[in-house]
């Protein structure tokens, strides 16, 4: 984390954090944003779908970081069906602009159009379910505007 913070301070690049099982979000934010001085809007916390703790999600969003629900295409994850509820809770609390989606595609097969499940699943299966929960307008922003802000270049 210290090296990531130093790299951020040298480059301005966004720091993305792999939270194993979606836990430790607040500790990571205390370290990166508190101790190391990284602006919260330059931090993305990943795998929050794996820990459907809506209180922690909201507390992390209150920091100002981005929350990535980036594993919903893996059908064997028992928490995937809760992801729309978590996104709706964040949106209802005014944090829809802090949400990111992804497919955690770490293998070539998962990234391929004909492979599975990856991005095709995210767009064909997850997007409609999420749109049903929070509306198409917010889903469109989550897929376009939010990542643009999260990963956009900041000039000093």
* Oligomer class: single chain
Radius of gyration: 15 Å
Overall mean pLDDT: 86
Task: Provide the domain count.
Answer: 1
Number of E strands = 4
Residues in helix, %: 40-55%
Architecture in CATH? Alpha-Beta Barrel
Indicate the overall shape: globular
CATH topology: TIM Barrel
Biggest sheet record: 4 strands, parallel
Order of helices and strands: HEHEHEHEHHHH
**Sequence of strands across the biggest β-sheet:** 1-2-3-4
Name of the CATH first level: Alpha Beta
Question: How does the helix and strand content classify structurally?
Answer: alpha/beta
Please identify which CATH superfamily we are dealing with: Metal-dependent hydrolases
Report, as a whole number of angstroms, the end-to-end distance. Answer: 22 Å
- Residue stretches low in confidence (pLDDT < 50, at least 5 long) are none
In percent, how much strand structure appears in the residues? 5-15%
Tally of helical segments:
8
Pfam family, one: PTE
Organism: Streptomyces indiaensis
Protein name: Phosphotriesterase-related protein
Keywords: Hydrolase, Metal-binding
Describe the protein in words:
Belongs to the metallo-dependent hydrolases superfamily. Phosphotriesterase family. It holds the Pfam family PTE. Keywords: Hydrolase, Metal-binding. It comes from Streptomyces indiaensis. This is Phosphotriesterase-related protein. This protein is of the alpha/beta class. It has one domain (2-151): TIM Barrel. Helices cover 49% and strands 10% of the residues. It is built from eight helices and four strands; from the N terminus they run αβαβαβαβαααα. The chain has helices spanning 2-11, 25-35, 54-63, 83-92, 108-111, 118-134, 136-143, 145-151; strands at residues 15-18, 43-46, 66-69, 99-101. It has a four-stranded parallel sheet with strand order 1-2-3-4, sandwiched between helices. Helix 4 crosses helix 6 and helix 6 packs antiparallel against helix 7 (136-143). The radius of gyration is 15 Å and the shape is globular. It starts with a helix and ends in a 5-residue tail after the last helix. The model has no long low-confidence stretch (mean pLDDT 86).
């Amino acid at each position: 984390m210290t090296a990531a913070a130093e790299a951020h301070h040298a480059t301005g690049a966004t720091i993305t954090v792999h939270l194993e099982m979606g836990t430790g979000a607040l500790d990571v934010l205390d370290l990166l944003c508190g101790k190391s001085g990284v602006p919260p809007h330059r931090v993305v916390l990943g795998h929050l779908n794996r820990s459907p703790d809506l209180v922690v999600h909201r507390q992390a969003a209150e920091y100002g970081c981005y929350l990535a629900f980036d594993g919903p295409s893996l059908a064997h994850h028992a928490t995937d069906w809760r992801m729309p509820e978590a996104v709706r809770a964040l949106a209802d609390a005014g944090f829809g602009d802090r949400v990111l989606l992804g497919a955690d595609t770490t293998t070539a097969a998962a990234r391929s159009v004909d492979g599975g499940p990856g991005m095709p699943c995210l767009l064909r299966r997850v997007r409609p379910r999420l749109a049903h929960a929070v509306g198409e307008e917010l889903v469109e922003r989550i897929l376009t505007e939010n990542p643009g802000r999260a990963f956009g270049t900041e000039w000093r």
